[in-house]
Design a protein that fits this description.
This protein is mostly helical. The protein has nine helices and no strands. α2 packs across α3 and α2 packs across α4.
């Protein structure tokens, strides 16, 4: 085994090879943790959601068909894990932008810029707005997919994204 071929690692992991799965874990854990941190806004919870995501990925690995990149499949699965947890814990509530951002200063002009302040900026957004921004702008989900995943209306998803972008650009 070369150890570098992700498709080979996936096939080995599907057949129960824990060492191959560990290599996949090591390759992707940083990005999945960053995603979970962005979605939850809490370090300890992000660590729990990261671990839960990889447990769920191991359990569902047989359903990965390779239609998309493994990382895309893992991001989608991890998003589902984190958002599902937040909804289950009743942490999924609407917070007005005014309530959450009375004097927030956000350090970049465009949501598309990769700036050092990105994490800080995202954490200043209300939970639902942050989730919509991450899912739409960073992961490429469509509003209908976001609505299905989160349980919010398509119009609410669009509104949250628009208001989050305006807040970011105006500060």
């Amino acid at each position: 085994m070369s150890g570098n071929n992700e498709a080979e690692l996936i096939e080995l992991a599907k057949s129960g090879d824990l060492k191959a799965y560990e290599q996949l874990y090591r390759k992707h854990v940083g990005k999945i943790h960053a995603l979970c941190l962005r979605l939850t806004g809490q370090t300890e919870l992000a660590e729990d959601m990261t671990q839960e995501s990889f447990i769920r990925a191991w359990q569902k690995l047989g359903s990965f068909r390779g239609d998309s990149a493994f990382s895309s499949w893992l991001y989608r699965l991890s998003s589902n894990v984190a958002i599902g947890y937040l909804r289950q814990q009743n942490k999924w509530r609407m917070v007005s932008f005014e309530e959450s951002h009375h004097q927030a200063t956000i350090g970049f002009a465009s949501i598309h810029e990769e700036a050092p302040d990105l994490e800080k900026t995202l954490m200043k957004l209300p939970d639902q707005a942050r989730t919509v921004v991450i899912l739409h702008e960073h992961l490429g989900y469509k509003h209908a997919e976001i609505a299905q995943l989160t349980g919010i209306a398509v119009g609410t998803s669009k509104s949250l994204l628009s208001r989050a972008k305006a807040l970011i650009q105006n500060n």
